[in-house]
Design brief:
The chain has 523 residues and is α+β, with helices and mostly antiparallel strands. It contains 16 helices and 23 strands. The chain folds into 4 domains: 3-87, Phenylalanyl-tRNA Synthetase, Chain B, domain 1, CATH 3.30.56.10; 97-298, 3-Layer(bba) Sandwich (Phenylalanyl-tRNA Synthetase, Chain B, domain 3); 304-370, Phenylalanyl-tRNA Synthetase, Chain B, domain 1, CATH 3.30.56.10; 389-519, 2-Layer Sandwich (BirA Bifunctional Protein, domain 2), CATH 3.30.930.10. The chain has helices at 8-15, 21-30, 41-49, 77-87, 132-147, 193-199, 259-273, 310-317, 323-331, 358-369, 389-403, 417-420, 452-461, 488-497, 500-503, 505-519; strands at residues 3-7, 34-40, 61-66, 97-99, 107-109, 119-125, 156-162, 170-175, 181-182, 191-192, 219-223, 229-232, 236-237, 250-256, 282-289, 295-298, 304-309, 336-340, 343-348, 407-408, 414-415, 446-447, 471-472. Strands 4, 5, 6, 7, 8, 11, 12, 13, 14, 15 and 16 form an 11-stranded mixed β-sheet that branches. Residues 485-505 have low confidence and may be disordered. The chain crosses the membrane at residues 501-521. It catalyses: tRNA(Phe) + L-phenylalanine + ATP = L-phenylalanyl-tRNA(Phe) + AMP + diphosphate + H(+). Its cofactor is Mg(2+).
Length: 523
């Protein structure tokens, strides 16, 4: 679940009302969000980097809010404010308009792009007025989308450019790295693509994206008609067309390996920031020409209609409301709705790509109605629930260990071959471990056969902590068994037995006697 940080004072100013922390937390809960933390930028840096990092950093209060992973429209202040105001009935849902395309802003794909990132979409925002806050939000939304739906730029990469510094039509091409040379964002000189890849190999943020295209024979690049490089997606934009506070017209391009995701991302970005255009919520489309000469217009910004049954909606949610009431509830969630006999027609806006099924609409009705107002009813399924005996045993063991003064550790189920063999003086061939056929890292090659390595790693990572360190862990281990029939309790006892090396003989005897006592207790 992504988390966004918004300045409290700016948020309250946009909402037109000041809340206490508890009041705003209640509002978030009603809207289906969670106020995760009240902090400051200084406190966040100190937590991440230590006391030395807080010098000169703002102490303005920040709200860190957990956003559902599929609500891309709430990943910035603009979308969050619009959503909350509509939910409170203080504002009508925005009505987006598409402006006719201009041929000079078209984007042309070359056949070479099929080798690496075959799709692209584009749009233009005209007459934008940026402030420092809205500019920061514009950049931050792109970062949030890159980490979320774009899957760290592997599926989609967003590029934004000052339209007044470049000249269309634009070309999306793929060239050998040695043929690409431009001045990258915030750099002082022109460099070739290989030089940039070497430069960013140690960059804190960008180095994680280099592997997306590093081994490709061609790198994607977007140019204007004069050959000025706008970007080398998904790595870096060009410095020539960078966005500033003085930018008035914005050209937005998204290159992708997944066209559907690219459409969603482009719709989200322009929907959120078209409010700052000279004509609010108006977006200019762009022609995107494919390699065969045909073209599509983007962004799509499509409104679509869904129809739900009133009786079925009430039944699924557990309420009893008429169609007009359901339509009103949906309108609070930015889903314009009308009631017709036994049906409700729902108009889904381009900001709500998360609505893909009637169940999503039922969920929005439940949120607007209020989960706490839905009557509790007994389950219609006849069943007798109960705790699994093995889980009951382990819970009792954990409680006794904690009472004895030990701290529980939760370590990784996967570990390296060295952890269960070499470091314990055993050959890996003699360890009945289940091996991962395609391990992604050397740290996760086998499933642990005992708990001791994880506890020793925990000790090694906490050497600065005051002594004594009294740790325990009760978890599953996996031992490859050719006979296939040993019970899980055997593995549990085997894992517990390993504690004698860690607890000491006397503590282990106490622990084992407690275990035997628990096993003989009645339910």
């Amino acid at each position: 679940m992504p988390t966004i940080s918004v300045k409290r004072d700016a948020l309250f100013a946009a909402l037109g009302k000041t809340y206490t922390d508890d009041e705003f937390q209640d509002l978030c809960f009603e809207f289906g969000l969670e106020l995760d933390e009240v902090t400051t930028e200084k406190q966040m840096l100190i937590k991440e980097q230590g006391d030395h990092a807080g010098a000169g950093v703002s102490e303005e209060i920040l709200y860190r809010i957990d956003i559902p992973a599929n609500r891309y429209d709430l990943l910035c202040l603009e979308g969050l404010v619009d959503g909350l105001l509509v939910f409170q009935g203080k504002k009508s849902p925005p009505k987006f308009q598409l402006k006719k395309y201009e041929d000079s802003h078209s984007l042309h794909l070359t056949p070479a792009t099929a080798q690496i990132r075959p799709f692209a979409v584009a749009a233009v925002l005209k007459g934008v007025t940026f402030t420092k806050e809205s500019y920061d939000s514009f950049i931050d939304l792109q970062d949030k989308l890159h980490q979320n739906i774009c899957r760290k730029r592997t599926l989609v990469a967003i590029g934004t450019h000052d339209l007044d510094t470049i000249h269309g039509p634009f070309i999306y091409d793929a060239l050998p790295p040695s043929e690409i040379k431009f001045k990258a964002l915030n750099q002082q000189k022109e460099m070739t693509a290989p030089e940039l890849m070497e430069l960013y190999s140690s960059h804190a943020q960008l180095k994680q994206y280099l592997g997306i295209i590093r081994d490709s024979p061609v790198y994607p690049v977007i140019k204007d008609k004069n050959g000025v490089v706008l970007s080398m997606p998904p790595i870096i934009n060009g410095d020539h067309s960078k966005i500033t506070l003085d930018t008035k017209n914005v050209f937005i391009e998204c290159t992708a390996t997944d066209l559907t995701k690219a459409i969603v991302v482009l719709d989200t970005v322009v929907s959120m920031f078209s409010k700052y255009c000279s004509t609010p919520y108006e977006v200019e489309q762009c022609k995107v020409f494919s390699t065969d000469g045909t073209y599509e217009l983007y962004p799509k910004m499509q409104y679509r209609e869904e129809i739900i049954n009133v009786e079925k909606a009430n039944k699924y949610i557990g309420i009893s409301e008429d169609g007009d009431k359901l339509a009103t509830l949906l309108s609070r969630m930015c889903l314009t709705a009308t009631h017709e006999e036994s049906l409700v027609r729902v108009r889904v806006p381009p900001t709500r790509h998360d609505v893909i099924h009637a169940c999503d609409i039922y969920e929005d009705i439940a949120i607007a109605y209020g989960y706490n107002r839905i009557a509790r009813v007994p389950s219609r399924v006849v069943s007798a629930g109960g705790q699994v005996p093995l889980n009951k045993l382990t819970e009792q063991l954990r409680q006794e260990c904690a009472h004895a003064g030990y701290t529980e550790a939760l370590t990784f189920t996967l570990c390296s071959r060295e952890d269960v063999a070499t470091k314990l003086g055993v050959k890996i061939e003699d360890v009945p471990a289940a091996h991962i056929s395609n391990p992604k890292t050397l740290e996760f090659q086998v499933v642990r056969t005992l708990l001791l390595p994880g506890l020793l790693k925990t000790l090694a990572a906490n050497k600065k902590m005051p002594l004594p360190l009294k740790l325990f862990e009760i978890s599953d281990v996996v031992v490859k068994d050719d006979k296939a029939g040993k019970s899980l309790i055997y593995f549990l006892f085997k894992s517990v037995y390993k504690f004698q090396y860690f607890l000491g003989q006397s503590d282990f005897l106490f622990f084992f006697m407690t275990l035997l006592l628990i096993l003989n207790l009645p339910d």
